[in-house]
Write a structure and sequence with these properties.
308 residues; 10 helices; 3-stranded mixed β-sheet; alpha/beta; 16% strand; 6-stranded parallel β-sheet; Rossmann fold; globular
Length: 308
């Protein structure tokens, strides 16, 4: 089986590749950005016609933390919409009956009952700071849903919670919270710093999932897609931690002594957004890597590869 992984150099895509290889898949198609511009409908159609993949993991997209989402709103809605539409619709035109697309739990409404079920999608107002990204991801999800309804296909969108792990983006302004805090701790250790700043008040709660656990869930769903009738599936660890406690955990793991401070001019985002992952767990999936172990593995990746 020929498997195409878009976004294969990113956090999710690279984890998928590692997991596919561990599961003895040999024929994996991994185009880089020079080979395939996913924002170009013509390039996507030409590439798909040439390689004719049997299954697609669409892990490509423009991603970032609260600041990146809020300051690059135009790119986040345009680029993510174009990438998803080109990949998903071209797969449909090519005759593929199954595809796994990747969304994000941040596209759920700002105020909804916790833990968040898949059915809560579009039931309320979005969080303003990431609304453009959320709208783009909802559009891709709805395209999958429409193709399934009109043509009896199995296009599934996975909704992971906050991801982290090897090959993450550690940019201090544009990354997600966990890698951003890890970079701050890394720099403090290198420079013997004693000042550690947290965006917001530190009280917001977040659910984190090690990216390798998401990849394992995605491959399990690929093996079972013929019997799965859901178009949206949550993937989460089931555990939340405050940003304040996360920072303290990172400081302890990295082994530094610093004073915490809080930049309350920065946005907190949604206070809590833990998701209900009962469906994927009913398939036999459970996360294997706890937060402490995951942070240690991610810090090892950061300290080994950052700026290389």
């Amino acid at each position: 089986m020929k498997i195409l992984v878009t976004g294969s150099t990113g956090l999710v895509g690279s984890a998928l590749v590692r997991c596919l290889q561990r599961n003895n898949f040999k024929n994996i198609i991994l185009p880089n950005r020079n080979e395939l511009n996913l924002e170009s409908k013509q390039e996507v159609e030409k590439f798909f016609e040439k390689y004719k993949p049997d299954f697609i993991f669409n892990a490509a997209g423009l991603v970032g933390g609260v600041s990146a989402n809020n300051t690059n709103r135009t790119d986040f809605i345009y680029k993510n919409t174009m990438i998803q539409f080109n990949v998903i619709y071209t797969a449909h035109k090519l005759g593929l009956n199954s595809l796994i697309n990747f969304g994000s739990s941040c596209i759920y409404p700002k105020n909804t009952k916790l833990p968040i079920k898949e059915e809560s999608l579009m039931s309320g107002k979005l969080e303003d700071t990431n609304e453009p990204y959320a709208i783009a991801k909802i559009a891709g999800l709805k395209l999958c849903e429409s193709i399934n309804r009109d043509f009896n296909k199995n296009y599934i969108t996975l909704m992971p919670t906050n991801l982290y792990g090897p090959n993450d983006n550690y940019d201090p302004e544009n990354s997600h919270v966990l890698p951003a805090l890890l970079l701050k701790a890394y720099n403090c250790k290198l420079k013997n710093g004693n000042y550690f700043n947290i965006w917001g008040d530190g009280k917001s709660l977040r659910e984190f999932l090690y990216v390798e656990d998401l990849a394992e869930a995605a491959i399990l769903i690929m093996h079972n897609y013929k019997k799965i009738k859901k178009t949206v599936i949550n993937i989460g660890s089931g555990n939340e931690i405050s940003i304040d406690d996360l920072a303290k955990k990172i400081i302890n793991i990295v082994g530094i002594k610093v004073k915490l401070s809080y930049d309350k001019t920065r946005p907190n985002g949604i206070r809590s957004k833990i998701i209900d992952s009962s469906f994927v767990k009913s398939l036999g999936w459970q996360p294997k890597v706890n937060l402490d172990e995951g942070i240690q593995l991610t810090y090892k990746d950061l300290s080994t590869n950052f700026n290389k």
